[in-house]
Every structure is written in C-alpha cells, then in structure tokens.
Amino acid sequence: MAMSRFWDIIPHSFRHRTLGVVMTIFLRAILNFVGVATLIPILILIVDSSNIATTGYLSWLYNALHIDSYQTFSIVVCLGVIAIITLKNIAVVYLYRFERDYIYSLYKHLSQRLYESYYRKGLGFIKHSNTAILTRNVNVVSLIFATNILKPIATIIGEGLLMLLMFVALVLYSPIIALIAVGLFLPIVALFYFSMRKRLNTIGDRENVAQRAKGRIVAETFRGYADIEISNAFPLTMNNFNKAIDEAVKLRKEYATIGMLPQMFTEVGLAIGLTVIIIVSLYSSSDNLVILLGIFAIAGVRLLPSLRTIMASWSSIRYNRYTIDTLREADIHEEQTTAPVTAERFNFERSIELRDLEFKFEDSDTPLFSNLSFTINKGERVGITGASGVGKTTLFNIILGLYRPTSGAIYIDGEKLSEENIRKWQNSIGYVSQSVFIADSTLVENIALGCDSDSIDLERIRQVIELADLTEFVSSLPNGIDSRIGEQGSKISGGQRQRIGIARALYKNSDILFFDEATSSLDNKTEENINNAIQNLSLKNASLTIVIIAHRESSLEYCDRIITLE
To answer: Does 91 fall in a domain?
Structure first.
C-alpha cells in the first residue's frame, strides 16, 4: 500500500491532528514498556530475594526506604509494582481516547463527505450507478477504512515502538537474548508476510465484490417485489443471493484461518526460544539460567501479543485495502464537495428562454437533441409532447437544473442559468414527476419535504391540502396529517401520491410548476381528476406558469400551446 494513496484520503483539516495522535501512540508505547520493566524486580524477588543486596537499583531502594527485612521489602516492592501498573493502564486508556476520537471523527467525516460527494455528482451519475453499491460505500466502506485500515496502522506504530524499546532493553541487558529473539521472530514475520501478502489482497477484493453483489440483489428484490413475484423470479434471485453469500462466507472463513496463523507462529517461536536459551546456558555453565529464562519469558509474554497484533493488523490492512481505492475515486475533499446553500428565489416575472440547446449523454456520441430553442412566458400553460425516447424528460431535467446542457443555455428573465444561481431557480419551482418520491415519514413531512418539523407552516399545509383536493384523504387517516404513509407511499394510491406531489409543489409557493408524465400511470377517472385539479390551480392563479409533459392529448387539453419534440 503506497503511503501517498493513503495520505490522499486524509482531509487537510485532520492532517494537523495526526502528529498529536502519533505522540499519544509514542507515549503509550513508553508506558507499556514501563509496565513490562516493572515486572523485573518481582522476577528477581521470586528467584532469590538475596539478589536485592547485589542488584543496583533494588539495593539503593532497600537502603533508601530503611526497611529492616527482605520480606517486608518484597511486599512493598510488589505493592509498588501493582500501583505503577495500575496508574500506567489508567494513563494508557486516557491517551487512547485521543486515538479513538481521531479515528471515529474521521469515519464520520468521510461518511458525510462520501454521501455529499455522490449527491453533488448529480442525477446523471446516480442514474448510471448502482444505488446499493453507493449506499454500501457511504455506510460501510468509510467505517471499514477507519476501523480496519487506519486503526491497524496506529496499532502497528504503537506495538512497533514498544517492540523496539524492548529490543534495545534486551540488548543492554543480555545481547544473547536479544539475538535469539531477533533470530526467531524476524523469520516468522517474514514468512507470514511473503506467504500471505498476495492471498490477503485477493480474498479482500473478492469479498468486496461478493458483498456488493449481495447488497444489490437484496435492494433490487425489495424494490421490484411485485414483478419478481409475478414472474416467479425469486428462486433464481435467491440462487444468485446464495452464490454471493457462499462466496463471502468462504472468503471470511479463509481470512479467519489466516488470522489464527500469527498466534501459532509466535507460540512455536517462544517454545523454540526457551529451548535455545536452556541449551546455551547448559553448555556455557551459566549460573543465571533461571534469570535468563525469566527475562526471556517476560519479554516473550509482552512481545508475542505485540507481534501477533502487528501481524493481524497488517492482515486487516491488506484485506481491506480496496476501501482506499473506493474513497480516492470518490473525490471527497471539502473544497470539491461543498455547495452553496441559499433560501433566495428567482423573482420570475417574464419568461423562460431556451437558446440553441444541445444535449448528449457521456456514453453517447449522438446528441439527444440539438439547436432547440423556444420560450415559455409567465402565466402560460405549455404542453410538451413527442414520441418515447425523444428526450422530453431529459429536457425537463435540464430546465430543472438536474442536467447540464452540452451547449446552449437557458435564460430566466434574461439571466443565464448557471452554477451560481441554479439553487435560487430550484427554490422557485415546483416539480411533480411520474412517480412522486414519498419518504417513510408522515404526510405533513412529505408535503413540507426538506423543512424541519418545528418550522412547518401548518396553516399553509391546510391550504395546499385543500388546493390539491386531499381533504377527504386526510380525514380518512387515523392521525390526520401526522399519519405515516409508508416507504415510497406503500399505503396510498397512485392518485393520492400525485396529489401529495402537487401539494408539495404548492407548499413551496412556486412560481412555476413542472409536471412530468404526472398522470400517465393513473386510470382515466383519476387522470381526469388530477388534470381538473391542475386546471383549477391555473384558473385561481393567472400568474402561475405550468409546463406539462404528457403522451395523451387529454392531459394537454387545457394548455395554451403545445410544443412537439421530434
């Protein structure tokens, strides 16, 4: 993993905090080393309390405390060690909070930026992407990066520093023990690294693909339940789901097995190390065999978990490295995702003018339309019609500011529509699509979409409910306007859905209303009722501009003029 690829993901606002986190990791490593070092006096006391008189720092402490017996001194030393280790652990937990806060603050930031970045890429990007994958990236990938990439990196730094300090101490105390430790543990690490590196990369990438496929299948199943059920497609869908989850489980099992290897390697290494020390001591006629074994055991007890943790952390980084590419591709830096927010509106007074518009999708060489020019005057009722695929909805999306024209421009009262004023334009318009978006919330929250519940104008809600002919529907609900209407309006009819869309557009007090095939999926009677409601709105407000896309001429009968796209 190239460090530059990783560093690109860290936002500039977090980079200055990285040094502070590194410092806390360094301090924790020193404290953990102190915790190990304080066990040495206990080892000496266990082996032979008479060593107190010949051990420099213990002899000095014994004389300084003016204690009469070795037994009392041994108890005092043990209590002191317990106190030091307890205080050390409290300090380590406190220092760890800085690392923890940094990691999870970064997760929160990345998730927010990823969410915003995808949204800011616009309708074209969303339509050409798999929303299940985008959802997983926002909710899961950023968390995996923080906990399974960033946290293991911090762990490797901390445990690596601790191992370095312990190695230096071993060199100073007994070069032989240090040499044996290096001779054992270094080959273990090298063997694990070279044998597992490519395998971890492969299974990590493959599991990511399997998890994406599983998420896509689930999302599509619930979204297209009716079609899947009627077509008897669920057995095939379930089979595809089982293949994806079987692949994910198989890879997870393999990863879990690999996770056991560090413990196996290090335990074997410890046993070999103790054996080597015994053999060396026997042939060198050393009188300090017990001390040497004790020092190696204490070092091993702390070194082995550190080594296992480093190897496991490295495995986690390799296994989850795909998250780095996902986040880098998303382009999540603040300066590129922050968008201006304003409540200002266009003061629409005269006309909407399209001048020489051309548009083609990125994956197409042929323009959908070109040299398209016409004007919509304030207060007009304009219908737009044409054959399927001619680009009616795409044209609407351009006028709404959801797509950018390849060439040409749109002018509102002579002012060119641009990135700087597009939010003001969208604040001024109402939009009712063929399938109105319904959030899984209350009726009032759906009508006042985007407004905080505390700021909703209930008087205005009552007015638009009446204008959209929703009064009878509201009275039938158990909790009136505070009734929940289900995910994507699962508890309401198509006509009610469209009327809610009209009420939403009216609640904004819009100057222009756009209807995109708003009645095409309704039965004739409901379509007639909706069309009458739209016509009544126009009659009650002569300055209201209405633009309608429709296939059926009956939906355009009350229009002042009709524009046919060819």
So the answer is: yes
